Amino acid sequence: MISKIIRYSINNRWMVLAITAILVLAGIYAADEIAIDAIPDLSDVQVIVQTEYSGQPPQVVEDQVTYPLSAALLAVPGAKNVRGFSYFGLSFVYVIFEDGTDIYWARSRVLEYLSQAAGRLPKDASPQLGPDATGVGWVYQYVLVDTTDTYDLAELRSIQDWFLKYELSSVPGVSEVASVGGFVRQYQVEVDPRKLDFYDIPLQHVIMAVKRSTGAVGGRLLELAETEFMVRSQAYVGDLEDLRNIPVHTPKDGPHVLLSSVANVQFGPEIRRGVAELDGQGETVGGIIVMRWGDNAREVIGRVKQRLSELSAGLPDGVSVVPVYDRSQLIDAAVGNLGSTLVK
Fold first, then answer.
1. Most C-beta atoms within 10 A of its C-beta, which of 40, 125, 144, 161?
2. Which residues contact 264 (CB under 8 A, 6 or more apart)?
3. What's the helix, strand, coil split of the chain in %, to 5?
4. Angstrom distance (rounded) from CA 235 to CA 247
5. Per residue in 153-197, pLDDT tens?
6. Domains defined along the chain, listed by start
7. Is 136 exposed, middle or buried (0-12, 13-18, 19+ CB in 10 A)?
């Protein structure tokens, strides 16, 4: 049998050489395109449903959110396990699927059943799907460093949330850009109960006045002189002065009572649950790049680095992006060790 194969190969040497060249080129292409990672991803195919239910204790979250969602998602096709976790104001439901299930098919099925179960949840509960990533999708992390000490943690967090995060989220292969550290700036209205009692204004009136002042109201078209005019009311809050001038009460005899008359309006930080620190030099602000499920880690990191180098020109003077975790270095080291082992 072997002699026949050898004789056939000698008589058809050009065909054998052509097949060999095709196999070599296919191997080179496969070696260049194969997804290489230093950390094996053995995670189950899972979809996470996160629900915010602000201000509620864990038991209430469990009874009104986690349990109804878990019961509804048990019927998802291909789901082998459903796990629910309840925290203060927050619920997580993990739907574990059979091995080999396509992640995006699983997400679409969960979203379908989630829309059916949303009607049984409280009005203030807002369920949403988690990122299409796994537990080992954390591939890159960076921090913002201000060498001039011009910007505080709130300003650096605003740069991260409103500039870098949006730009990096559009990079192919990036599932999520998670912000860490700093302070999230927010408008804060500190109501003085003594002033409310003096003006005889219920607290609910203040809350409703602030809510009404932060939206736009549409009207209808008005025709004048054969020209149509669009009637609308625009009342978006642009700065603190807009908030201070919101009327909260209109007495029959006297001027309007403004929000600034009964409350202190200011910028302040949102309550945070953690901090980020760099090399013992104090707090900092950073971002975590989470890769999409099944993507090529080294290629995603390369695209993120390229995008960060392009975005550095748009950062304020003195602010720079410093990488603190780069898995591509570990991947290259692992590939180099494997190559040296094979050579030996």
1. 144
2. 189, 190, 192
3. 40, 30, 30
4. 13
5. 999 999 999 999 999 999 999 999 999 999 998 889 999 999 999
6. 46-129 (3.30.70.1430), 138-184+272-343 (3.30.70.1320), 186-262 (3.30.2090.10)
7. middle
